[in-house]
Structure formats: C-alpha cells, structure tokens
C-alpha cells in the first residue's frame, strides 16, 4: 500500500504554497500537487512584486489577517538571505469624496495603523513625482511595503520541503473520490494517492471542485503594464524613493502601482484595479493586451506620473478571480468533513497568503484558526 498523506494540497499558487508552509510546521505528511510547472504564468500568483498595505480601504474585517500575514512575511524574511520585503511606504491618493481614500483613513484610524493624512499640497511637497490637483487628498502609510513575490513563494516552498512537504508538478488532479475515511486523489498522469484531508487552492479553477462557487467566482483577464522613467528620472522611481500607491482618478478608475524591485521587471508596474476586466476562458488566453487598453492606461498614467514614459515598456494580461463581493472564500467545503478550500483573489489576496495558509492548516488539524474568518465563509452567498 502506498503512502497515506495527512493532507493533499491541490494547486500551488501562493495560497497553496503558504498552506504547505503552515501544514509542514504542524509536522504533517503533506503533498502539494500542481498542474503546471513551477513559476508558471497561467494563474494569478506569478511576477516579481505585490503590494502589502494595512490602511485597508476594503474594510476593518481584514485587519487581523493583515497583522498575522505581516508577522509571517517578516519571519520568512528572517529566514531568507535575499530581501523579500522592500520598505517603500505607501500612498493612497484620490479626489475628495474618494471611497478609497476615506476607507483607508477609516481603517487606519480604527485599527491604529500608523498613517498621515495629506492635503494635495502635502503630496506635492513630499512626493512631487505625483501630479495632483487641488481637489485631491491622500493617506500616507509608512509601514506599507512591496513583497518580492517570486522570492517569497520560493522561500515558503523551501521551508515547507525542508520540513518534509512533498511536491508534484506538471500533473493535474482530475478526480477526488471520497472513501470511508479520507479521499483518493487521481491525477492526469495516472497517479493515485490516499489522503485523510484535502485543501483546494486552485485559484480560478476552484469552482471545478466547489460547484456552489461556480456562479460566485468569475475569472477575469486584466492587463498590467510596466512604465520606465523618463531620462534623468530613474532615481525618483526606484524602490528607495518611490512608494507603492493607489490613485483614484476623478472618473472613478483606481490605479495601483509599485516600483521595480527586480531587474526582471522594467520600471514601475501599474494596472487598473477596477477597470479593463474582461471575461476569460481558462487555459485559452494569451498574455497579449489590446492596443486600446494600453492606450487607456497610458493616458491615465501620464496624467498622474508625468516622469514616466508615455508608453509602457511591457504589457501583459493576468487573471483576477473576482468573487461577487470582491472578498475571499475560505473554509470547509459543504458536505465534506475533511475538505477545505480558499479562493483569495479579487485582485488583492497575495498579501494575505501566509495568514490564509495558517488558517487552512489549523482547520485541517481541527484547531481554532489564528485569526477570525467569519466574514470570509464559503457559504456566505448561499445563506443570503
Ligand atoms: C496583475 C495582478 C496584480 C496583483 N497585485 C496584488 C497586490 O499588489 N497585492 C495583493 O495582495 N494581491 C495582488 N494580486 C492578487 C494575488 O496575486 C492573488 O490573490 C493570488 O495570487 C491568488 O493566488 P492563488 O494561489 O489563489 O491562485 P493561483 O495563483 O491562480 O494558483 C492556483 C494554482 O492552482 C493550480 N491548479 C488549478 N487546478 C488544478 C488541478 N486540478 N490540479 C493541480 N493544480 C491545479 C493552477 O495551475 C495554479 O497554479 C494581484 C493579482 C494580479 C493578477
């Protein structure tokens, strides 16, 4: 008889990797199965950088997860010889009346996140690379940072495998069958493994396994661009001088951006968080971005950051898995005692990954999660 695993984790994007890290620390026999090659570009987790911020306009319900994740990113940093955290600070700018700026201030005040509220004049003095009109205001969060996404993912896997986690790449899970006790997991290449518990972290493919989420989780293609600084402007945009940012435009468009923290990415990475999302057929999309979308983003960027080149050096399409309320789904899968799942995208999940990994690990072993997840239950849509 083959190995019986305590847990099989299906899907090794950042959520699956963080879950392996959390599970391996519990000394469990764990196998992670990933359909594609390590570092592939088809899900949502690839790329060099992600924003971490705590003045969270999306709401105070995220704060305990953010605090836990921050501690875990920092503990991962201590284990790493290369930087995983770039302490850039973060600025969140918008017109007066911007829900994003008001929400950032509200959460920062309630959760005692260190921050400063800035007038348009103060933005111009402190961060003159941003073009702001007099109707704008902003929040500056000194503790916001950029995560070296690829490096952090590799490190989580390394720590997990050193603690005994096993990995299987390039083989998709095609069937999960419930046994008297536990599950059998079958893969496309003909492997069959037995496990007591399952964690599903399959990103945009999650609803293949959790059908009640089918209508609730919608994969969307969304472009992201890299803009190089104009001649003589490079030092203004490096990660020592330029913060991670959100900028709400007067027309409601919300741009996010962060300085380059890797030689693999040319210049400042910028995308729309709430625009340019198109429907997407999984596995059948190219990374190409239409000229129309590139033009729209370029015009917006030149309006707010005139020190960047007009046209991006690079543009590519990625995937957001949007939930109905743009939040996360984490918990036990209905009808199964030992099957758990997490969909944490809607374009803002990466920063939470180590907290979500620890939550899933504690659910698997029947412990109370380290942070409350009541707002993120998988069944919250059906109970409305
Ligand atoms: C352009 C962009 C910018 C972003 N910026 C930020 C940011 O600044 N800050 C932030 O916090 N978040 C950000 N996000 C969101 C964040 O990246 C996502 O929330 C996160 O990556 C989701 O990870 P995941 O592991 O759930 O999904 P995925 O990365 O999609 O991973 C799912 C994995 O499951 C595998 N899989 C699927 N089905 C199977 C199967 N049957 N068998 C085996 N494997 C399977 C897939 O191959 C894939 O590798 C951004 C996202 C994008 C796209």
What is the CATH topology of the largest domain?
Answer: FAD/NAD(P)-binding domain
Task: Provide a count of the helices.
Answer: 7
Fraction of residues in β-strands: 25-35%
- How much helicity do the residues have? 10-25%
Number of domains: 3
Structural class: alpha+beta
Secondary-structure blueprint of this entry?
Layout: E1 4-10, H1 14-24, E2 30-34, E3 49-52, H2 63-79, E4 85-86, E5 90-95, H3 99-110, E6 116-119, H4 120-126, E7 136-141, E8 145-148, H5 149-162, E9 166-169, E10 173-178, E11 183-187, E12 192-200, E13 217-227, E14 244-248, E15 254-258, E16 268-272, E17 278-279, H6 291-304, E18 314-323, E19 329-332, E20 339-343, H7 353-364
Parallel strand pairs: 1-2, 1-12, 2-9, 5-14, 12-20
Antiparallel strand pairs: 3-8, 4-8, 5-7, 6-7, 10-11, 11-12, 13-16, 13-17, 13-18, 14-15, 15-16, 19-20
Bound molecules: flavin-adenine dinucleotide.
Provide a brief overview of the structure.
By secondary structure, this protein is an alpha+beta fold. Helix content is 23%, strand content 28%. The protein is globular.
Main features:
single chain; 384 residues; alpha+beta; FAD/NAD(P)-binding domain; D-Amino Acid Oxidase, Chain A, domain 2; 3 domains; 9-stranded mixed β-sheet; 8-stranded mixed β-sheet; 7 helices; 23% helix; binds flavin-adenine dinucleotide
